[in-house]
Write a structure and sequence with these properties.
The complex is a heterodimer. Chain A has four helices and seven strands; from the N terminus they run ααβββββαββα. Chain A has a five-stranded antiparallel sheet with strand order 1-2-3-4-5, sandwiched between helices. Chain A is of the alpha+beta class. Helix content of chain A is about 40%, strand content about 20%. In chain B, a hairpin with a 2-residue loop joins strand 1 and strand 2. By secondary structure, chain B is mainly α. In chain B, helix 1 runs parallel beside helix 7 and helix 3 runs antiparallel to helix 4. Chain B has one domain. Chain B contains ten helices and two strands. Classes of the chains: A alpha+beta, B mainly alpha. Chains A and B meet through helix 1 of A and helix 4 of B.
């Protein structure tokens, strides 16, 4: 009887709190979705170098995106084609993602209109260790990818990460010290995605640029 | 627990039974979120809300909660409030929510919150329990803020994002990293207990705190 009472009590209480929390979540969902949308679009504008979208207000981000970026559907993934304010083509931004040390890492990599060099990279969602692996989203790390030659990315890795301070060498970029696993994960999935961009998506983009 | 006047509750929460200085509880968030003052302020607000509301709720349910499942009930209550804090941050302060990352969710396992529910709220009426949660939360916040101010000034050369150190100041990178937090916490606890023994060493019975939690 005592056990039964405990079970009923716990069940009722859980039902009550779960309902209350769900209610709060439901009421805020639109706002959270909007924040997510602004965040993603801000990242796209940033990697394409269209504007320094870091300090832009959410409305401005959405407006600029609306005006200068076109979303293409290329073989099932969303590719973002960016134009500068004067209408010239700035490049393409591709989502890149893969398993990190603790969980999936989501990023966005932008390439020039010829799909020959990286023009921007950002990691915007991950659960890597703060202060160590999490530093992949810092500017000093992502900035060094700008200019990386990806023409041969289909056959060999476009870049590799090495301990900072080592001898400069072709395609070698600074890894994050103390975050070997995270660095290796980035190296692995980003190289794979760059390869796919060059071998598969480049053709699709050039042939009329998809639709959308 | 006869004499639970608000004054006594606050003196205990802030000083004589300060959760960090006296019990060394809740250290993970102390170490993790004190490198920027603004993160610390938001963390403190979240913890204050969670601890006072949880204490209040646990106290309100104290006569009907079966003793055997009280821990489950406390965890459920605490988790619910923490999720509400998390959702609110995601909706209104997305940047800070990103910066705090998993640490908001980890308030659930902050042993200070459950400690107060277990040691105070389940044996005391709602109003003193609410005040006890608030006082303990303020004691926690006070220490975090003191550490965060020093770490941000030395680690970034700024305070709340505004530059306070002279041009050419080289930031102490270690202050941003975890070791900086350990050093600061140790120095802080040593300093206040040595400098203000009357305030922090206190007398009177020690309130029971759970052991072995992060």
């Amino acid at each position: 009887m005592k056990t039964f009472h405990s079970v009923i009590f716990m069940f009722a209480l859980t039902l009550f709190f779960a309902t209350a929390v769900s209610g709060v979540k439901y009421l805020q969902q639109d706002r959270i979705d909007l924040n997510e949308k602004v965040k993603l679009r801000r990242v796209v504008l940033n990697v394409l170098g269209l504007t320094d979208a870091k300090d832009m207000r959410p409305e401005a981000v959405l407006q600029t995106f609306e005006r200068q970026v076109q979303v293409l559907d290329v073989q099932g993934i969303s590719v973002y084609r960016g134009r500068r304010a004067d209408g010239t083509l700035a490049g393409y931004a591709f989502p890149t993602t893969g398993p990190g040390f603790w969980g999936p890492i989501y990023g966005m990599v932008a390439v020039d209109p010829e799909v020959e060099h990286i023009i921007g990279l950002a990691f915007y969602r991950h659960t890597e260790t703060p202060g160590l692996g999490a530093r992949i989203s810092e500017e000093w790390f992502t900035r060094q990818f700008s200019g990386v030659d990806i023409r041969k990315a289909g056959e060999e890795p476009a870049f590799h990460l090495q301990p900072p301070g080592g001898p400069p060498d072709r395609g070698g970029l600074d890894a994050v010290t103390g975050a070997t696993q995270t660095s290796q994960a980035v190296e692995r999935f980003l190289n794979a995605d760059l390869g796919r961009i060059v071998t598969e998506y480049r053709k699709a983009i050039r042939e009329g640029g998809g639709h959308g | 627990m006869a004499d639970q006047t608000p004054g006594r509750i606050f003196r205990q929460g802030l000083f004589t039974e300060n959760p960090i200085v006296r019990h060394v509880l809740g250290i993970c968030s102390t170490l993790a979120v004190t490198n920027l003052v603004v993160n610390t302020l938001v963390m403190n607000a979240g913890l204050l809300f969670t601890i006072s509301m949880s204490s209040l709720t646990v106290s309100l349910l104290r006569t009907v909660t079966p003793v055997r499942i009280r821990m489950m009930v406390q965890t459920l209550i605490i988790a619910s409030y923490v999720i509400v804090v998390d959702i609110t941050l995601k909706a209104y302060l997305p940047e800070i929510s990103d910066a705090l990352g998993p640490y908001v969710g980890l308030i659930i396992t902050n042993c200070i919150v459950m400690g107060r529910c277990e040691a105070f709220a389940r044996n005391n009426p709602p109003w003193p329990s609410f005040l006890d949660g608030l006082a303990t939360g303020l004691g926690f916040s006070m220490v975090l803020l003191a550490i965060a101010v020093v770490r941000e000034i030395l680690g970034f050369g700024t305070l709340l994002g505004a530059r306070v150190m002279p041009e050419g100041f080289v930031p102490w990178t270690i202050m941003i990293m975890a070791p900086g937090a350990f050093f600061m916490l140790g120095l802080f606890v040593w300093f206040v207990r040595a400098r203000f023994p009357d305030l922090f060493e206190g007398s009177g019975e020690s309130r029971i705190a759970p052991k072995g939690s992060p």
